Amino acid sequence: MQVIRISSRAASLGALAAAALLTASPAHAVPEGNGIMQGKGFDTCAAPSTTTMQKWWTGTPWSWIGVYVGGAVRGCSQPNLTSTWFNTTYAQGWRYQLIWVGPQAPCTTYSSRISYTTSTAYQQGKDEALKAWTAVHNLGFGNAAGTPIVYDMEGYPNDAACRAAVKSFMQGWVDQLAVAPAQVSGVYGSACASFLQDYASLARPPRYIWAANWDGDPSVYHLSCVSSGSWTNQQRFKQYQGDHNETWGGVTLNIDSNCADGPTAAGGALYPNSSCIVR
Amino acid sequence: MSHSLNRVSKVSFAAAIACLSTLGYQATASAANGVVPWRNQPVAESASAPAAPAPAQHACSASDLKVVPGQQGARRGYATQELRITNRSTESCYILGAPSIELQHPDALVESVSPAAAPAEVAQQRIDLAPDDDAYILIGTPGACEASVGPKRKVAKRVKLFPRGGGNLTLDGVHVDTLCGPAKVLQMEVVQDEPKQAAKAAANAAAAGKSLGLRELTGAITAPESVARGETLRYTVTLTNPTNEAIKLAPCPSYTQSLHTEGRTQNSTYMLNCAGAAGQIPARSSMSFAMEAVVPADMTGLGVKLSWSLQDALSVGTIIPLR
């Protein structure tokens, strides 16, 4: 702790007393890395204002938020999303799932799609990982070592060539995130329609999954189309309710509701709602 | 050296407290370890909320609005196109329910986006736009279907928007693919553009020759590794003044602390120990304040969520395991 000296002879006694108590201004930043989060979180299209975030923290079940940090098909503009926003909300107590929404499966209508050619798709996965790292770094997460980043791969038709391309793409995503300073790779998608189970058979699978499974059951261990033997060691998130409005602190947001038993950015917290982790 | 400085601090603090007492501040216990001690002065919770702006009197017309294409996205299984709207007029106006929209394809095909297709909450939604306020409308089409496995696409590059207040707006540069199904308005929201609002507030304050006061402060919280039910939680809040001028704690602000576990919240509001801080946070400095809260013995759950808010200026929080 550093004491700041007052040199002005004109300083009042009161000011002197205050000064004697001071510490130097700390350089405040959101830490890189992660921690295990057990608890509820929400995601919404655009990062709410810090005032809204405070209202959604105080006296609520939420302890983390899914934030769309970038990618070619991120759905909403993000005027609030700056390093200052992360600093402020981190101080409020929030932890994060950082979501990257890059090109989607080649057999979809999204405006940006990956290639059907698996070797190209693999390289595209690596390219997206680099872009995601750059975005996270620029948002104040330092070198983002150990920071979880999740790729949002929306659902797509059950077509063999398409599934092969997506698997290859995701291997590229995982491999590039593993390059130092390594991040923690995650994949978000529909439990069934995004074929999340496919990734379990990758040579180097993603470290965790975030499954959209809107059945109203919060337990991350109750997922359709995902084997109970996959991602068992605090490696799961579940989006159990989608597209609805909730009001907390007088502010209404359109959100998806989630549960966590896995790594969140900037640290974790054991704030379990027991329904999230029922086996 | 350190010992000497600490001694000076303590002497100065005691003298200052004596001085402040004569100025009307209540003297408190002396600071320990450079932390302003907690002051047990509860106050009734303030229920005041900022006055809501008056509702707009007329529906937005095309002449009120500027529209530009926003993000082309993937969300909840829909391929989305964001339309960014700004109220460019000098009066507030409102948008009630999803507007009528036409999609115009390069082959001259025109498809209507029916307001009736929007989700119920959007169909009934009203958004008020003050001058220079922004909103977005999110249009979506199903992002995948059997047909999308092949190369054919059905993309509209132009939309026409028909605000209820009259007129229409034509917008090029969008991407709405209706191959897998018709488009609908998925969502409408006022954009909470905090950097823009902060810049306005700073400009207004500067024009009036005032500072933003408490709103300039940033905060951090230091809490123990765990806390036992029925015990007093002791933690520290550090307020930092990043500006080049002292921020006065006058009138002395209150703060509210909140403890929350599953289904239960306990709020309490106190006056900040302004006397212990000599009535200000000096320029480019930080000051730490000791805080206390009793954790109810019957509080359930494995962790307690702590929130501390200094009026409407700033807030800090954390989650602490419960023993």
Explain the overall architecture.
The complex is a heterodimer of chains A (279) and B (323). Chain A is an alpha/beta fold and 279 residues long. Chain A has one domain (32-277): Alpha-Beta Barrel (TIM Barrel). Chain A has helices spanning 13-20, 50-57, 83-92, 118-138, 160-177; strands spanning 34-43, 62-70, 95-100, 148-152, 184-190, 208-212, 236-248, 251-265, 269-270. The model of chain A is unreliable at 1-28 (pLDDT under 50). Chain B is mainly beta and 323 residues long. Chain B has helices spanning 2-22, 120-123, 194-207; strands spanning 35-36, 65-75, 78-87, 93-96, 100-104, 110-113, 126-129, 134-142, 155-162, 169-177, 184-190, 218-222, 232-241, 247-248, 254-261, 264-271, 280-281, 285-294, 303-310, 314-321. Chain B has a four-stranded mixed β-sheet with strand order 1-18-13-12, with no helix packed on it. In chain B, strands 2-3-8-11 form a four-stranded antiparallel β-sheet, with no helix packed on it. Chain B is elongated and about 75 Å long. At the A-B interface, helix 1, helix 2, helix 3, strand 7 and strand 9 of A face helix 1, strand 1, strand 2, strand 3 and strand 8 of B.
Keyword list:
heterodimer, A: 279 residues, alpha/beta, TIM Barrel, eight-stranded mixed barrel, 5 helices, globular, B: 323 residues, mainly beta, four-stranded mixed sheet, four-stranded antiparallel sheet, 3 helices, 20 strands, 41% strand, disordered N terminus
Task: Offer a concise description of the structure.
Chain A is an alpha/beta fold and 279 residues long. Chain A has a single domain (32-277), classed as TIM Barrel (Alpha-Beta Barrel).
